[in-house]
Amino acid sequence: IEFSRISKRGARAGCLTLVIDERSHEEVRTLYVISARTELTQAVDDLQVREGTSSDDIGFCEMASGRFATYAFNRHPKSCERIRVWALEKGFDAVIWTALPRRFKDAIGIPFSPAAALNYVDGLPVPTKENALCYIHSTPEQTMTPFRRLLIERDQRKRRP
Hints:
Layout: E1 2-6, E2 16-19, H1 40-51, E3 58-62, E4 67-68, H2 70-75, H3 77-90, E5 94-98, H4 105-108, H5 114-122, H6 126-138, H7 146-159
Antiparallel strand pairs: 1-2, 3-4, 3-5
């Protein structure tokens, strides 16, 4: 995953958000929660409502059938297979996730890189920048993407006398 999507709507409009990014070659540790739902369709619906997105943006893998959400598989085929293997190791019946596409280049016209993302955040209007940084820094500590690492290293260099 990486902060390679720029939100268009809601409280985080203009902010970088985390998405599965198969162009990033670094594995990033993420967290998961077990749903209280016992039916896959209900769990998918819950995540869709939570994320405020369409069903096309929710990925799933059903272990018994090996079936994936079509859009998620088309967007992230390597990640879908990796998720399937992980879910089998954990003994899960199914897994769901937010499967939004990258949207950095589409939003600002240049390809994503950690340096480009840092320049983008630095150029945001102050309220949006504060909101973006709050989101980035509130991400769980172990979710250390290449962009986040660059941002933290840069901020630490600024604080040194």
